[in-house]
Design a protein that fits this description.
Distance between the termini: 47 Å
Low-confidence stretches: 196-205
Order of helices and strands: EHHHHHEEEEEHHH
Largest sheet: 6 strands, antiparallel
Strand content: 5-15%
Oligomer: single chain
Length: 205
């Protein structure tokens, strides 16, 4: 495996957050328990109750150990989100809305929820399965722009009827400003509407 080979989401913590990952494995007792802790952080009510018990001297070493694991998990997730939001990592997955494999826009990373065990990522509007991760390089900037435009087009896709490409293009120019690239828009439009440029489907005639 080279540094440019994509890896499954569940393998990403060991590669990109190695030091914290080793600490988490040591704290939880195994890689399986570490990945489970990352995938399913303790719910808020449990954290609140545990912290109240620790502060009041009513909890023992086990609660303290659980709190340390939770703090490490939160740190790792925050670090991981930052790596993606800053563009240092890129991700692809099968989008639930389209059924197509596509890049996950960097703008989504700040509030993504990761299920490392299942190789899934989601936010309140989008979800992706079979997620893979890779390090970014300049050649991927075009694909990231395409992914951002796909997300925008999906949100602005009319419920009924045919979307006029020129109207959507004007909206995209206003939305993306200096980042707008006609080639990227054409590719995104093609993927969202599942048509090839220059060869419209018969239903759109």
């Amino acid at each position: 495996m080279t540094v440019r080979d994509p890896i499954k989401l569940r393998d990403a913590p060991a590669r990109f957050l190695k030091k914290d990952w080793l600490c988490l494995v040591d704290s939880t007792g195994s890689e399986a328990k570490a990945i489970e802790a990352l995938s399913h952080p303790d719910p808020g009510f449990l954290v609140f109750t545990r912290r109240e018990g620790i502060a009041g001297g009513r909890s023992g070493p086990k609660a303290q150990a659980q709190e340390e694991i939770y703090a490490l998990v939160e740190k790792m997730i925050a670090s991981y989100r930052e790596l993606g939001a800053s563009g240092r990592l890129i991700a692809q997955g099968i989008a639930s809305l389209t059924g197509l494999r596509q890049s996950i826009p960097s703008e989504f990373w700040s509030n993504l929820r990761f299920d490392f065990e299942a190789n899934k990522a989601s936010n309140d509007q989008f979800s992706y399965t079979h997620v893979t991760i890779n390090e970014n390089d300049p050649a991927d900037s075009q694909e990231d722009l395409v992914a951002r435009m796909i997300a925008w087009l999906t949100q602005h896709r009319p419920e009924k009827g045919k979307a006029l490409k020129k109207i959507l293009a004007a909206g995209a120019r206003a939305e993306f400003g200096d980042d707008y690239k006609e080639r990227a828009f054409n590719e995104a439009y093609s993927r969202v509407y599942q048509r090839r440029r220059g060869r419209p489907r018969s239903s759109e005639k």
